[in-house]
Amino acid sequence: MHYRDAFNQTLEKFKISAKSLSLSSGVQERQISHFRNGKDLMAETLFDLVAALPDEAQMYYFSCVGGESALQTVDLRSLVKSMPIARKYEVLSLIAASLMESPENTDQSKFMPAAL
Fold it and tell me: Per the domain annotation, does 31 fall within a domain?
């Protein structure tokens, strides 16, 4: 899918307004509107817009642009190594919450570290 179409589809799917994206990205709302309607952006500006999207919306955008196979080729080890420490904590918290919420994980004791 073309990157502009993927961008428009992402904003629509996640109900993200140009105004809110402008506030979080620092890109003028007018620029976002022009881009959505066919005018090109500098790559750096597009990167700023995509970076300002929520994580789930970013992943959706990249899956639209590159297809699911693009997401499957990510080297997780390299990705994690390159993350700042605060981001690593965030990812660990998200994984832990996901595990705890999973219906098949009703016995939470198996996730607790063994007593010393």
Answer: yes
